[in-house]
């Protein structure tokens, strides 16, 4: 595992949470020197916004501008839509963000919650509901 991160955002909507996750994911991988990545997002609206030339809704404008600045750096980033069911590890990390104080939490090792989900993925269990966290 490369590591992971979670951010405590407080109260916000799903659109902003997805944008923050995308921005933090870009920074996390770029700082670790990865030059070719594929980012999966479960929000089709965010994927469409990032693929278009438009800036999206006013609420996320600054985050989108920072994402586009990072995307313009010297690396290959593929943006994909994935259904929420395929991102159980991401959801577990997002939930960890509720457990710590404001700001970004970085995990250099796999957390127990995420370890169980990764094990389920490797063994072919596709529904996160089959795992008790």
TrEMBL record:
<dbReference type="InterPro" id="IPR002156">
    <property type="entry name" value="RNaseH_domain"/>
</dbReference>
<dbReference type="InterPro" id="IPR044730">
    <property type="entry name" value="RNase_H-like_dom_plant"/>
</dbReference>
<dbReference type="InterPro" id="IPR036397">
    <property type="entry name" value="RNaseH_sf"/>
</dbReference>
<dbReference type="GO" id="GO:0004523">
    <property type="term" value="F:RNA-DNA hybrid ribonuclease activity"/>
</dbReference>
<protein>
    <recommendedName>
        <fullName>RNase H type-1 domain-containing protein</fullName>
    </recommendedName>
</protein>
<feature type="domain" description="RNase H type-1">
    <location>
        <begin position="14"/>
        <end position="96"/>
    </location>
</feature>
<dbReference type="GO" id="GO:0003676">
    <property type="term" value="F:nucleic acid binding"/>
</dbReference>
<dbReference type="Pfam" id="PF13456">
    <property type="entry name" value="RVT_3"/>
</dbReference>
<dbReference type="InterPro" id="IPR053151">
    <property type="entry name" value="RNase_H-like"/>
</dbReference>
<dbReference type="InterPro" id="IPR012337">
    <property type="entry name" value="RNaseH-like_sf"/>
</dbReference>
